[in-house]
Each structure stands twice: as C-alpha cells, then as structure tokens.
Design a protein that fits this description.
One of its GO terms (cellular component) is SOSS complex. The structure is a single chain. The chain contains one helix and eight strands. It is mainly β and about 140 residues long. A hairpin with a 2-residue loop joins strand 7 and strand 8.
Length: about 140
C-alpha cells in the first residue's frame, strides 16, 4: 500500500492505499450522476477524495477506507482528486482507529508535467499547506 504523501497524478488506475474519512462536502447531482468531495488522510498526508453515485451515502466521517486500483487525477473542476474510478474499489474496513495528519494536502499542490517526460507529473509549488475546501477548525 502506498502512503498518501507518495501519490502523484497519473492517467491509470493503480493506487492501493488506506485512509480515514475526515469530512464530506455536499452532494451534487442526482442518481448515478451525483458526486461529492471529501477530505481524507493517513499518517503522512491528506487529499481530496471524490465519491460517485451510491458511494456518497455509503461512507461517513470516521470510516477507514481501503482504496484498490485508485487514480489521482483531474476532476471536472480542474483540481486533483483521488478516486476509485471505473476499475477501482473503495471499501470500508474500520472506524475511528487510525492516526492521521491534515498537512500536507496533496490536492493543494500545483502539479506540472515533467519537462523530460510529459507523461509524468512533478510538484511545482504548494498552493496551500491545508485543504482550502475543508479549512482547519481552530
């Protein structure tokens, strides 16, 4: 399993990881076309996770989720999100018993194509150390 701090954008499903769901945004759309963005984290980093369809109601904050064959890439809003994709699978494997950090947030990093290989993305700069969609509570 890969740690969240080690994920990089890619166009293929191959990320196997585990994280805790910290917060969920509102559901947008209806039926099978609905989606919502969530904040998830492990002990190394946080990232925005995109749920689709029935996944929006299937998971709640505090759930520990195992992602198999996930993808970290652009969503419709041109932001990087981790998601199961068509061939991946997100499943609940526990609740509340996982250490986590909220920084760095891998979705708040500006990723650019590597000048030597346009199929690989590299970190250009940090947009924000924490989630701008789910700001930390003080």
């Amino acid at each position: 399993m890969v740690s969240l701090k080690d994920i990089v954008p890619a166009a293929q499903n191959n990320i196997n990881t585990q994280f805790v769901l910290l917060d969920k945004g509102r559901v947008i759309g209806e039926s099978q076309n609905k989606a919502c963005i969530a904040l998830v984290a492990d002990e190394t980093a946080a990232v925005h996770f995109q749920f689709w369809g029935e996944e929006c109601e299937a998971f709640e904050p505090g759930d520990i989720i195992r992602l198999t064959n996930g993808i970290f890439s652009y969503n419709r809003n041109n932001t990087f999100v981790l998601r199961a994709g068509k061939r991946g699978k997100a499943e609940k494997v526990g609740e509340f018993t996982m250490a986590f950090v909220e920084t760095p947030n891998m979705s708040e990093i500006r990723w650019v194509p590597d000048p030597n290989n346009s199929k690989i993305y590299v970190k250009e700069s940090v947009v924000s150390s924490h989630s701008l969609m789910f700001p930390p509570t003080v």
